[in-house]
From TrEMBL:
Keyword Transcription regulation among UniProt keywords: no
One Pfam family per UniProt: Lectin_C
Domain (C-type lectin) ranges: 32-137
Protein name as catalogued: C-type lectin domain-containing protein
Species of provenance: Capitella teleta (Polychaete worm)
TM stretches of this protein: 155-180
């Protein structure tokens, strides 16, 4: 009994491979929304900072709203330093140096002073923007930004089911398949009586699921036997003292073949 129980609870293992797409930042980068940010450690001139970010498939940060500005400000606090942002002024107009898009959100410390120089930095103290000359002697840390990358990872996951569960699953699947196959099939039954007392033991009955518009009736007592080659049912009148079956109707099935139906009652 114990062995049988152990066998019935024996686990059947199989493995499936699942591909997961993860959206995350690389090591050292911090995620905010759909972007990743990196606070650099070394100080460089503005142009070199631009190239440094590009080498990492990124750009000097382009700030789009107050929420992102606050996030970048917190990075400068952790850096304990002001940092370059990606704003630059050309022909009196401030744009983002990498994308060349116009700047729609600003956080200038002073609207007048922003016209004095061609580059911009963020102070760690207040998160405001300050214009600064783009000279080589001005070296600052920087904030690089890039989109969150999608990486494919495949995981092999073991799946275990008990042998009982496995057998039940197979039975259920086979039952559903069998019912589906028989759904539109003709259902034949041959229960008109024992063969030794019924000379017409090959008579049969079918379920009433045919074209009712083509049905015909017969008022006489009869036993239906086989359907002839031309599709017409044949029958022979019998006396009630002998075995017989009362005819119900004949009809055409879905393929226009002649079929018939009889009462399941048997009389001696």
């Amino acid at each position: 009994m114990a062995n049988a129980l152990q066998i019935s609870l024996k686990l059947l293992f199989f493995c499936t491979v699942v591909k997961l797409i993860s959206m995350e930042c690389e090591d050292g980068w911090k995620q905010h929304g759909a972007n990743c940010y990196l606070a650099t450690e070394d100080k460089k001139p503005f142009n070199e900072s631009v190239l440094q970010c590009r080498a990492m498939s990124a750009q000097l940060v382009e700030i789009g709203d107050a929420d992102e500005n606050e996030f970048v400000h917190n990075l400068t606090i952790s850096m304990k330093s002001a940092a370059w942002i990606g704003a630059s002024r050309e022909n009196g107009t401030w744009t983002w140096v990498t994308s060349r898009r116009p700047i729609t959100f600003t956080s200038w410390v002073n609207e007048t002073k922003k016209k004095q120089h061609g580059c911009a930095r963020m102070w760690k103290k207040d998160g405001l923007w300050h214009s600064i000359a783009c000279k080589r002697k001005n070296k600052l840390k920087s904030i690089c930004e890039k989109k969150v990358s999608a990486t494919d990872q495949e995981w092999v996951i073991p799946v275990a089911v008990t042998s009982i569960t496995f057998v039940l699953m197979v039975v259920i699947v086979l039952t559903i398949y069998s019912c589906w196959r028989k759904r539109d099939a003709k259902k034949i039954q041959t229960d008109l009586g024992p063969e030794d007392s019924n000379p017409y033991s090959n008579a049969c009955a079918v379920n009433d699921d045919y074209d009712s518009e083509n049905e015909s009736y017969d008022n006489q007592d009869a036993v239906y036997t086989n359907v002839s080659q031309d599709g017409e049912p044949t029958f022979d009148s019998r006396d009630k003292e002998d075995i017989y079956a009362t005819p119900i109707k004949t009809a055409l099935d879905k393929d226009d073949n002649a079929v018939f139906m009889v009462d399941n009652s048997v009389y001696q």
